[in-house]
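Protocol step 6 of 9: fold each sequence in the batch and record its structure tokens directly after the sequence line. For illustration, a two-sequence batch is reproduced in full.

Sequence one:
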Amino acid sequence: MTGNAVLELSGVTKRYGDFLAVDGVSFDAPKGSILGLLGPNGAGKTSTLRMILGISAPTEGEIAIFGRAPGKAVQRRIGYLPEERGLYKRMTALDTIAYFAKLKGVWGGKARRRASELLDELGLGHVKDRRIEALSKGMAQKVQLATAIAHEPELVILDEPFSGLDPINQNELEAAIRRLANAGTTVLFSTHTMSHAERLCDRFVILVHGRKAFDGTLDEARAEIPRKIKLESASDLNFLSAVKGVTEVIPPHEGVPHWEIVLAKGADPQAVLAACFEHGAKLTRFDSSPPSLHEVFVVLAGGDVGDAEP
């Protein structure tokens, strides 16, 4: 295992008959990091998670968790929140979390104390004695997260954790994930919603058609694509094509009300602004902010973004 990597995949491939679900994927997750596994449905995210969890075996390649192969030897050091949720509806929130803690080796009063602590931490202390069937969807999802971390695992794997949550519960879940990482827990989560990954992740792995399209930080991802400046003006800005570092000038068109100025790598956006002043072009908008993760994803996925959301 490389350095302080808690999780390491090397050339992992998964075939289901003639279908190639995962194709030679390699990446690692250092201790205490938050790693996003991104891609549209069908990209190979869930197949990859299932191999990490030991639910299915790779066709080729190797996976190491704490330096060992997936399986019983490392099970209790892992917490898992599946995409398909499922809790015992007639159990109370407290009993549910304590029960899952016991399944992972936390016994007696310690399991109930841990359950109570987590409910308070997640803002659910007032519903600890309420049955799961009486909870809102957001509350139940936070209880399910608590069941995944009740035994204080060192690696937490979350499959589409934000699915179906309202904005308030999404923010609370993001805060819970940050607390885990700050405490030294390694977090791997899959999502097709780029905004959560952009706010949370130290690094990203982007899968497209089962292959790794990118592995790195947000800044490194942004450097992979041409930078665009967005301008709004009543003037004709085609003169900007002569500015050093400008590779393309795209006028407003259907669905895009602004000019887009594409820059070469390393080009200075201020040169575009200076040229506008020099030509007397009046601007009502000048946006040179770096691309969002969703914009990066669209380019790296070759436009095949499926159900990926901003």
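Sequence two, same batch, same settings:
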Amino acid sequence: MVREKITVSTRTLQWKCVESAADSKRLFYGRFILSPLMKGQADTIGIAMRRALLGEIEGTCITRAKFEKISHEYSTIMGIQESVHEILMNLKEIVLRSNLYGTCEASICVRGPGYVTAQDIILPPYVEIVDNTQHIATLTEPIELVIGLQIEKNRGYLIKAPNTFQDGSYPIDPVFMPVRNANHSIHSYENGNKEILFLEIWTNGSLTPKEALHEASRNLIDLLIPFLHTKEENLNLEDNQHMIPLPPFTFYDKLAKLTKNKKKNGVEIDFY
């Protein structure tokens, strides 16, 4: 068994990239450490960072495709090897990088015979394809394939309605997560009193693992900043048209029941 040796900070809290690799244009890997941490802190940070990496980073995806004169998603087009459904699944796999806010339009217009790949997508200048070789369709005859596309930047995973939109286009369930996977592990030293946090990050190529780490950290900090305010914000609830009904708060009911049971057993409870 080979033991890995790395140099870590013993006084000042610091992070460091200890390994990075690019297996392909659509698979990047990075491993990072944060140290020194007190006992229990590595797990606290690791769990929060993993959730932020997987759920709080925005990605760009194709979310809708419009074909000409297609009756339903499982139709076949004369002169095209793939069905409409297979083309939609191929479009779903296209990895994009962008400075987009909201949605934009793109298109494909290709004449066969030949292969249709990601490089045939006509994009606005602020959207970029990570891997131009990704396959979309195979044209076996001299026909024209025209597809209108909608591109969106968002986060998480969305399930679109199964039916078509009013304009006859077909929804694509997008996965807006640039981070494919994230793991954390902990190494203890000094008799378990100090810890080193290890973070492993795999991305789809639209972000490097280091960029993903920075963005997840920034987004996590933004979520916690409101708690740093010493006073609660004075919200005008009377003008709020989006009031949310809350379930009954049963703390005092449970407290009264607990106190009653304790008194029956001859135990007094003091609350400070």
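Proceed to step 7 once all outputs are recorded. Observation for sequence two: The chain has a mean pLDDT of 87.
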